[in-house]
Amino acid sequence: MNSTAQLFKKEWQEILSNRSILSVMLIVPILYFTLFGGLYSEKKVTDIPTVVVDADQTELSRELIRAFSIETAFRVTAVVPSEQEAMRLIDQEQAQVAVVIPSGLTVQAKSGKPAEVLTIIDGSNMMISNTAVKAANTVVKSVSAGVTLKKLEAKGEWGEAGKNFFTGIDYRYRVLYNPAFSYQSFMVFGLGGTVLQQVLFLGVVLGVAREKEQGTWQETIRQHHFIQLLLGKMTPYFILATFNLLVSFTILLKGFQIPVYGSSLSLLIAGTVFNVAVLAIGFAISFITPNQLQATQMAMLIAVPSFMLSGYTWPLMAMPPIVAAIGKSLPLTYFLHAIRETMTKGHTLSTVTYDLVVLLLMVAVSLFVAYLAYVWQQRKAMHAPLAETPSSL
Fold first, then answer.
1. For the whole model, what pTM was predicted?
2. May I ask the CATH architecture of the domain 48-176?
3. Which of 82, 99, 266, 381 has the highest local Cβ count within 10 Å?
4. Eight-state DSSP code of residue 93
């Protein structure tokens, strides 16, 4: 057997005997492709929360409402009295589309004069806005064609003569927050947050795992309380994470002139809470994993699918319940929602209180897990012979 074959055999045996490498090579791809396949299993965005302003109160306006209700892209949740009320519901995320049927629509349509139906769309998620624009146009044109056919049938006019009875209900739309459908304005915040999370995860999970491989961990937990470990090990990463947050978003906002409508203070507060959540989760991972390889694997298992499952591009409401539940358990989901609300829509921090509370809850749970691991490992270290630690050799 030549040297190449021997090397091949040795490496193959090493892979088969190492569960960590084997799981990365075989299990992780299956897991991710199953997850991503389920993510898009609905194939298209449906059931977009929609409100209707019916200022016409006629058979034609009711037909329009029925048509929007039947269209799978929309889920009509309420009929509201005014455009201002519809805008308020969109602003509060209780609706993402508003259909405004103006007063006098039927009279205008029957007399052959220009008639318009307005659709107001939350454009902060381009998947939703693109779907809503196309689907609403189809609905309005279909109803318009139906009205025309009824007029032709009633008059008995067809062919060239029937053109005089054409009823044109025009479709207009107003896209909020991203009226130019700019992918730059839409994508960069999400991708930026994803990069910041992955870098921070990779750094912090190695903090404790590195000492375990070096053989100094038992001595460290003998000499330090949990709070000392937490502050001593996490503070440097927190400083670096804050620096990265400021530099990265300065590049995006100033370097590329991406339009923003919120305050820098809101970004800093949301980013700080997010960084603390990622630090806490990474700290817990580093406690419960025996070495740097497994710590990195677990961190990447969380970080890699985060952007896809965050609801930033493909909305959570269009995901299967199990996949959406996974997305809602990830810190990036709440950070990107907070960024979209504060930076893209110009809302105050009060609108993202829920996101910040969930992130802080993740901090509490992660630190509790880390503390339990610390107590168990400290007791184990206290009962271990001193000769086993590097300081006693």
1. 0.81
2. 3-Layer(aba) Sandwich (3.40)
3. 99
4. T
